[in-house]
Amino acid sequence: MKINTHSFKINTNKNFEIIDITSKINEMIDVEEGIVSIFSRHSTSAIVVNENESGLLNDLEFTLNNLIDDKFSYEHDRIDNNARSHLKSFLLSSSECLPIKNNTLDLGTWQSVFFIELDGPRHGRTISLTIIGE
């Protein structure tokens, strides 16, 4: 059994941005079988698994924007005016734990791993991987 850690940086260009990081993660997998923990080190971003279909990705942004609307006054905005970004991240997740098989993520047919920027644009967002396997 071995445990390895890796990380990589992402730069974002928009306030809300969905970036497919599946291939980047697969490049870093260094075990035949096991699991990988994928963690975003930022409280205004998320890691999710879903289908990489443009309509669905647009629907996610639409849904989050309508659930957490500008028409409300949020207490956290007194600090740094990004309460909406933090609240959206509460609804998503900062991490995923996924299986590895044959040196690659063992995802379903339509699944991809996404980094979701909720408070961009930002430079140097860090994604950490912990890989456990044989």
Structure description:
The mean pLDDT is 97. The chain starts with a strand and ends with a strand. The protein has a single domain (2-133), classed as Jelly Rolls (Sandwich), CATH 2.60.120. It is an alpha+beta fold. The longest helix has 14 residues, at 54-67. The strands form two sheets. It has a five-stranded antiparallel beta sheet with strand order 1-8-3-5-6, covered by helices on one side. Strands 2-7-4 form a three-stranded antiparallel beta sheet. The protein contains four helices and eight strands; from the N terminus they run E-E-H-E-E-H-H-H-E-E-E-E.
Described by the principal axes of the CA atoms, the overall outline is elongated
SS elements, strand count: 8
Instruction: Determine and state the CATH class.
Output: Mainly Beta
- Whole-number tally of structural domains: 1
What proportion of the residues is helical, as a percent range?
25-40%
Spell the H/E element sequence: EEHEEHHHEEEE
> Could you please say which CATH topology applies here?
Jelly Rolls
The main sheet orders its strands as 1-8-3-5-6
Q: Please give the oligomerization state of what you see.
A: single chain
Mean pLDDT, nearest integer?
97
Beta-strand residue fraction: 35-45%
Radius of gyration: 16 Å
CATH superfamily grouping? YjbQ-like
